[in-house]
Structures are given as C-alpha cells and as structure tokens.
Amino acid sequence: MPIRIPSDLPAQNVLSRENIFVMDTQRAATQDIRPMEVGILNLMPNKMETEEQFLRLLSNTPLQINVDLIRIDNQAPKNTPKEHMDAFYRDFDEIANKKYDGLIVTGAPLAHLAYQDVKYWEKMTVVMDWARRHVQSTLFSCWAAHAAIYHYFGQHRVLRDEKLSGVYPIEVQNERDELMRGFDPIFYAPQSRYGEIPIEVYQSIPELSVLASSAHTGAHIVASNDKRLVFVTGHPEYDPESLSQEYHRDMAANLSPKIPVNYFPDDDPSKPPMVKWRAHGSLLFTNWLNYYVYQNTPYDLESLSR
C-alpha cells in the first residue's frame, strides 16, 4: 500500500520515477480502511529534498499512510520557495488538536546554537509536550534527537571538536527489539553532526534502551521502553549524494572539511560515493511504522493518551 500525499507535491513525481507507489488524495478516498496518520515536522532548510528522503522511507510498507507536512516557523526558508510552503505545509497551530499515529521530527543545522537561542525553541518545547499526548510514537532525527533528550530528560549534548561525517558501521545491541528485526548484526549509516550525547548518558536513563551503537558514533538508535519515543542520531534517510553535497558546500565556503569517512572510493571526492546504508534505512522505518506505530496505536485515535 502507498503513502498518500497531495496530488501536486513535487516529491510525487520524483518517487513515481523511482517506481515507488504513491497515492493522491482522490484515489485514497475510495479505499474503505483506516489509514495511518503520520506528521513530518520538517526543520531542514531545504524542505523539498528532505520531504523526498523521508517520504521514500515511509513508502516501503503495506500500510496506507496519510502524511501531513508541518511547520512551526513562519519565516520563509531561504532554500525553499514560499509558494511551496504555503501550498503543502500546515502550521502547527492548525493541527494542534489532531492526533497522529506517528510523527517524524527532522534534524536541523543548529549544532552550534544553545537550544534556548534557537528562534523557535519555545514552540519546539510545545510540540514535544504535545507529541506525548497526541502521538503514538515520535521519531526524532539528529539535532532533534538531542533536543528531545534535553527537553524530556534534562541531559545536555556536547560538541565535538570536528564534525562527525561519513558512513559508519553500527552494531545492533538489542536484536530482540522489534525495531531491529531483520537487521544484520553490523550495518552502516550516514552521520553528519557536531553534537553528541555520551552513550553512558542514554544508559543512565531507566526509560530508555540503546538499540544500536558503535565506538565511532556512540549511540545511534535509542528508544523508550514504551515505544513512544525513538531517537536516531544519524541520517538513514540521506540520498547517495547528500554527504558529497555537504562536503563540497563546506569546501566552497573555505571551512576545510575532512573527507567523509567510508564514503568516497579511495577517499577521492571526484569518484561516485559508495552507497551501503539505504536497505537498512528503509528497514528501520518499516519496522517503526509496523511495530512501534501500527501494532500499538488505537483504532480510534481520539482514545490516544499518554
């Protein structure tokens, strides 16, 4: 079954060319089932690229999914046309009374700002508290994962001296958890961040379990015992060229970035990158939707409570 998105969302054409089944609103209305309701709070500057990445991952499931694109900052992002935001995004206040089976909160390039200095931090705290009452399971990605750990558990991140950038081997720590079902013992995932929360901090929180980690990246996937919160510190949604684009952007800005680890053959940025994370990225989101969302969410979303 497909994801359901607006008929004229540009991501629909991209996904269709990749033979990914997407359904527009008119066709979905003829199916007599209760679709899953999933929101994506997109904090990235390039909204359209991030939409495609996460919608691609959500598409690999037998469930029909209605997707709402959500914004909390009314300022037009410099990398996305205002017309696109106005046409396809809903302000958080518009959906604040709605309940969702699942919510994805993306990362954001805010590593060097204190949380309180982020212009929409106050609204972020409102959303995170709202999610505990209105969402069956919320998946926080990269910066959002660290922000949520700070908000829910009062634990601070630290900043690395150098950016963690590359595709790193990750080891499954709890193969019995449904989120890790079907994973190889060692899998790969892109990383692109300065922030880090030591693994010992996660392990000290009784409500949380570290499901996958590595010596290079620390904790990679962490989940609450009630399956309502998932924290992913890397970027399984990344396209093959995402790290390359970041590297060349930083080179052009004279930031002297290091070559992403385990990414370019022979560490040669002129060569096409090696892609070895997409299958497990897809599996992660399939497992999340099935075991953390669908298998636990009530049929009547209005009965959802903390």
UniProtKB/TrEMBL annotation:
Q: Which residues does the UniProt site feature Important for acyl-CoA specificity point to?
A: 111
What is the reaction catalyzed? L-homoserine + succinyl-CoA = O-succinyl-L-homoserine + CoA
UniProt entry keywords in alphabetical sequence: Acyltransferase, Amino-acid biosynthesis, Cytoplasm, Methionine biosynthesis, Transferase
Which Pfam family, any one of them, does this sequence belong to?
HTS
Q: Which Gene3D superfamilies match?
A: 3.40.50.880
* Pathway given in the UniProt record: Amino-acid biosynthesis; L-methionine biosynthesis via de novo pathway; O-succinyl-L-homoserine from L-homoserine: step 1/1
Q: What residues sit in the active site? A: 142, 235, 237
Where substrate is bound, by residue?
Answer: 163, 192, 249
What's one GO MF term for it? homoserine O-acetyltransferase activity
One GO location term (cellular component): cytoplasm
Alphabetical GO biological process terms: L-methionine biosynthetic process from homoserine via O-succinyl-L-homoserine and cystathionine
Q: Where in the cell is it found?
A: Cytoplasm
Domain of life assignment = Bacteria
Site (Important for substrate specificity): give the residues.
192
Indicate the segments annotated as coiled coil, or none if absent: none
InterPro entries per record = Class_I_gatase-like (IPR029062), HST_MetA (IPR005697), MetA_family (IPR033752)
Checking HAMAP family in the record gives: MetA_acyltransf (MF_00295)
Question: Which family does this protein fall into?
Answer: Belongs to the MetA family.
Please state what the protein is called. Homoserine O-succinyltransferase
Instruction: Tell me which species this is from.
Output: Paraglaciecola hydrolytica
